[in-house]
Amino acid sequence: MFTTTGSRGLYKAPLSKGLLLVLSGLTVMLLLLPQYQHMFEYNLQAVSHQQQVWRLLCGRLVCLDVKDSFCSAMLIYNFRIFERRFGSRKFASFLLGTWFVSALLDLLLAQAFSFLFDYEVEELPAGLLAPVFALFVPFYWSIPKVPITQVLGLVSITNKTLVYIVGLQLLTSSPFMWVLALSGLISGGLYHSNVLWLQKFLFVPAWLCAVARYLLEPLFSSSQPTSEAPLGMGATLDIQRQQRMDQLDQELLLAQFNEARANSRHQAQTGLLPWSRLFPSLRRRREALPQAQTQPSAPPPPPPSENVVAEEQVARLVEMGFSRPDALEALRASNNDINIATNFLLQH
Question: Per-block average pLDDT, block size 10, for the chain (348 residues)?
């Protein structure tokens, strides 16, 4: 299973969809017009010695290699969860901030390599590669790891394994790809941890986001997938495939939760949160929902002041595809810790 975010496609991810379509289209266009490829080469010598600063924009935007374009497109598609979780503006700010920081780090790493090994790096692989590598930082820290199977009983395969394999394939596609990977990981760590207050200086302005929302979002927005359509009743093959993927995701997560609950009966859980006490079963709550709607009930008491849930965190969980009641209950029980609430909702 490649995707770790379900099978909702590019719904609520217009920026990711725009990057996939525009950058891939430019790569194909340059393949058909090879006489213009020299304008998009990431030539460090031209930038540092000839002051061709425009090459930073052209050379660090469009991939000239088809394999690099394909691998980076797969990674951008998988990392679309961050646009759903944080919104298009914050996702664009992360890409913009890491793009600027990694551009500086590319030059510094090339100079350091030249000083240590007396070999001058003249050209690096072209494309939006360093920001893609930077996205591995929040992917490692924010996305929960769910074991799927084991190879020969030794190597554990998780929902994140194939993403790392694609990243490794991209890393080994060029001799100096490690420069972009290292600058991307460093810039992603700096921006994600907000070292030197980078998030306060490198961000997408609100007015630019509003203009892009008005002009570009209608072109790249995707409609909500109709996964509720019954199989065999005129549903398309894409909907059927999407339903099977959603069902497989739920079965794998449920099996993992049942295995962890069975292991907890034999081992003492020291230092762990008692999930069964903090959260009631979402499945049982959904089954009891129709009966509860037929019987009048008194309004629930207002929550205490210490359990007031931030509306912004509720909106993030709703954008990820969870229902609002589940998001509210998970945040209240986890004391407004969005990471704990996300991990629980993904496993139930």
Answer: 56 92 95 94 91 91 95 95 89 96 95 92 95 96 83 82 95 94 97 92 93 90 62 46 54 54 50 46 48 49 55 80 81 76 71
Using a cut of 0.85, tell me whether the model's pTM lies above it.
Answer: no
Paired tokens of 260:
């962890």
User: 331 and 313 in contact (C-beta within 8 Å)?
Assistant: yes
| CB 134, CB 188: distance < 8 Å | yes
Give me the count of residues in the chain: 348
Cα 46 from Cα 30, distance rounded (Å): 20
CA proximity to 27, closest of 77, 68, 55, 56: 68
Judge whether 23 and 62 are in contact, CB under 8 Å. Answer: yes
φ and ψ at 147, to 5 degrees? -65, 140
Residue 194 vs residues 94, 100, 184, 233, 280: alpha-carbon distances, Å: 11, 14, 15, 51, 36
Give me the residues paired with residue 207 across strands.
none
Q: How many Å apart are CA 317 and CA 85, to the nearest integer?
A: 7
Cβ 134 vs Cβ 191: under 8 Å:
yes
